[in-house]
Amino acid sequence: MSQKSKKVVCHISLKDGVLDPQGVTIRNALAQLGFDDVMEVRSGKVFELTFKPEVTNDVRAKSEEICRRVLANPVIETFGVEEL
Amino acid sequence: MKFGVVTFPGSNCDYDSYMVVKDQLRNNVEFIWHKDSDVSGFDCIILPGGFSYGDYLRTGAIARYSPVMGSVIDYANNGGLVIGICNGFQILLESGLLPGAMLRNRSLQFICKHVYLRCDNNETPFSNRLSVGDVLKIPIAHTDGNYYWYQADVDELERNRQVVFRYCTATGEVTDKANPNGSANNIAGICNKARNVFGMMPHPERASEALLGSADGLAIFQSIVANATSGVTA
Q: Which CATH number fits the domain that encloses residue B221?
């Protein structure tokens, strides 16, 4: 029986209080377009990791380690992982 | 004295740095390939500007895990002199050799122009040929040069006199208008506590001879040589 590859989505976002010039610019553009219900926009990044089919254990822990060491910069960013 | 200039895929100021050392300082210099892991025999390592690994993920984030950086980190932790310019500064931040992080410029724009820097600490191997208050005209060329750290930590940097250069006006006033990218406390260049690792966003190698419009950057390289020849480690 073939094993289905595990997928994990990693969400990287700026920590609260860290200035997000991109978010501010997008918020201003939204207001100009008439979407003035939006008070704040915070930008971030999403990475989808597909593990090798034989990897079935600890994908959450492995993904968190990847976020901590590479995908996020802990000085300015936080992360969350979501198993699909 | 022998300098090493690290070349990452996407470095584009490696030759500029090399030429300054060779032609202006008349010192020995060699390139170090990013896949090399031997950095012994060098008296100073330059991490040059550019767009290492395409600036993918975050500026400097991938370069930080290249084979050569493991050795550069050991070299720095053993007291070796390391200077990171622009992308090199970003790599030093990502590797943890210098504290803090870079955010996008507050204007969101790539900025390429000459700016003025005020020397705030001349007791480092990278600034000993300057006086506190000296103003240098040196170009910047970056999108992510908005230096950020938590306020309490920036205060700590200030207390430790780790801020070496600040963006200022032509007459040396540190104002918000003279801050091109939004950096905390107008920070343009910092060193570590031990003073042997230094990073700056402006490009002194692009301002090291009159032909380039300014030779003010040369003092930074001359400081490194003066430090080595005097044996004074500031």
A: 3.40.50.880
pLDDT tens digits for B17-52? 999 999 999 999 999 999 999 999 999 999 999 999
Task: Write the CATH number for A53.
Answer: 3.30.1280.10
Residue B119 annotated among the catalytic residues of the structure: no
ipTM for the complex shown: 0.81
Is residue B123 flagged as an active site residue? no
Which residues from chain B sit within 8 angstroms of residue A22, using beta carbons?
A: 104, 108
Q: How many domains does chain B have?
A: 1
Let me know if residue A22 belongs to a domain: yes
Distance from CA of A25 to the nearest CA of B (A): 9
Confirm whether B86 is a catalytic residue.
yes
Q: Which residues of B touch A19 (CB under 8 A)?
A: 103, 106, 146, 148, 182
Taking contacts as CB-CB distances below 8 angstroms, the residues of chain B near A47 are none
For residue A33, the enclosing domain spans: 7-83
Cβ separation A70–B100 shorter than 8 A:
no
DSSP-assigned letters across all residues of chain B: -EEEEEE-TTB-SHHHHHHIIIIIS--EEEEEETT----TT-SEEEE--B-GGGG-SSTTTTGGGSHHHHHHHHHHHTT-EEEEETHHHHHHHHHTSS--EEEPPTT-S-EEEEEEEEE----STTTTTS-TT-EEEEEEEESS-EEE--HHHHHHHHHTT-EEEEEE-TTS---STT-SS--GGGEEEEE-TTSSEEEESS-GGGSSBGGGTB-TTHHHHHHHHHHHHH----
pLDDT in tens, B157-186: 999 999 999 999 999 999 999 999 999 999
The mean pLDDT of B131-160, rounded to a whole number, is: 97
Task: State which residues form the domain around B176.
Answer: 2-230
Task: Identify the band that residue B231 occupies on the pLDDT scale cut at 50, 70 and 90.
Answer: low
